[in-house]
Amino acid sequence: MQKLARFLLRLFGWELKVAPPPSRKYVLIGAPHTSNWDFVVGLLALWGARIRARWLGKKELFKPPLGYLMRALGGIPVDRSKRSNLVDQVAEIFRREEEIAILITPEGTRGKAPYWRTGFYYMALKAGVPIALGYADFRRKEVGIGGYLYPTGDIRRDFAAIRAFYQDKVGLRPEKQGPIHIREEVEEVASD
């Protein structure tokens, strides 16, 4: 699968670049997320780099018979009906596993979002794992992981570093690319 994925990426003009991870466990964010093609290019990149990333889904998606397929594709069921904290659930998953990468798209949508969701940040912080800066730059036709950031707890400072990394990455539909801000930053600007 790795050879086929690398061949297909090259065939379509994509270059795969993956910085080696500093840890066997990490939260992998994927951005910018502006089209369904992000999934295709990202999946080929994951296969090409031999990264078996997992993703989170509501537990209802994992009922038989579809549940078997969802798990085979890397899905991890989470219970969103309880008042349980998703960050705590994910931190527990990281604690149990010896090696795991959990993929999250922080924009939360393919449409233009006013800010990034920060759950990925707090999951990595609570679990004590780095954030892998995954990207698909359609302008350069480059896909991969450009680096890793260990969250410090100072979300504004850490988001400034994340913003600096993604500032020149362009999605397939740039008009759907939202700013890389946390909600508090957007609310502060709106209240001024």
From TrEMBL:
Residues 27-136 form the Phospholipid/glycerol acyltransferase domain. The keyword Transferase applies. Keywords: Acyltransferase, Transferase. Pfam families: Acyltransferase. InterPro entries: Plipid/glycerol_acylTrfase. GO terms for biological process: phosphatidic acid biosynthetic process. GO terms for molecular function: 1-acylglycerol-3-phosphate O-acyltransferase activity. This is Phospholipid/glycerol acyltransferase. It comes from Thermus thermophilus (strain SG0.5JP17-16). The lineage of its organism: Bacteria, Thermotogati, Deinococcota, Deinococci, Thermales.
